[in-house]
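Re: Re: token formats

Sure, here are both.
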Amino acid sequence: MPFLKAVIKETLRLYPVVPGNGRFVSEDEVVVGNYWFPKKTPFHLCHYSLCHDEDQFEDAELFKPERWLRGDSSRSKSTTGSYNHHPYSFIPFGLGVRGCIGKRVAEMEMYFALSRLMQKFEVQPEPGAPVVEPKTRTLLIPGKPINLRFLPRA
């Protein structure tokens, strides 16, 4: 189950459903670094860009679920997850009081559905299928249809 969870996290890192969100400075002015922002300043956080930032994730454009695995004595250094990124560089469900209220349910549904599918089927892309690039339409969606083949396992 740890590897399945790592695969889901890595997929959400590369292709966040909600690629960004906005917030207002509500109560008081804020100073970030050397920049001053007055009350009611709108901010937009682009999760997609942050999750593809090489400063946050080594080999950011590569699908590497092992980056999310916690190390133990049975793993070599080369496969152990590092958690070297900033804790707010990966927040696919948001955070705090405005975070997704259904986060835990969504995670459990993904774990359950994918584990059952993988037990019963081998999933393959359609032969000759093109690489599908994401498009932003408020949500991140596939730019082309994704066709998969579900082959029953013996």
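Second one below.
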Amino acid sequence: MVQRGHGAIINISSGATTTPGPGTGIYGATKAALESLTRVWAAEFGPAGVRVNALAAGPTRTEGTAAFGDAFEAAGKAVALQRLADAEEIAGAVTFLASQAAGYINGTTLSAMGGMPALG
């Protein structure tokens, strides 16, 4: 990307960085570190035309989370939209960050958490 003079890196973070819960300490801390790395890389690679952003995903329905059953489904009630995200919605946010429509977005974390932080 640096040699081409353009590109986009999107790191996948989590709502656990801003709305931690019991048992998410290590996970949230590693995702917070990833968001810090995102900002550092944005400063380092930005001059070469490479944008670096993160996407903080809220509770998302996937094949992997299906194993958690009703307990995970209940997590959807903890967000302002009162539902889990579909994987396609998170993919759409990543696609946006990778696109030229986000060409001036660099070094930030986009929240795709259904309004979870709004509920405190």
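The first strand starts at residue 7 and ends at 14. The domain at 7-13+28-115 is CATH 3.40.50.720 (Rossmann fold).
- S.
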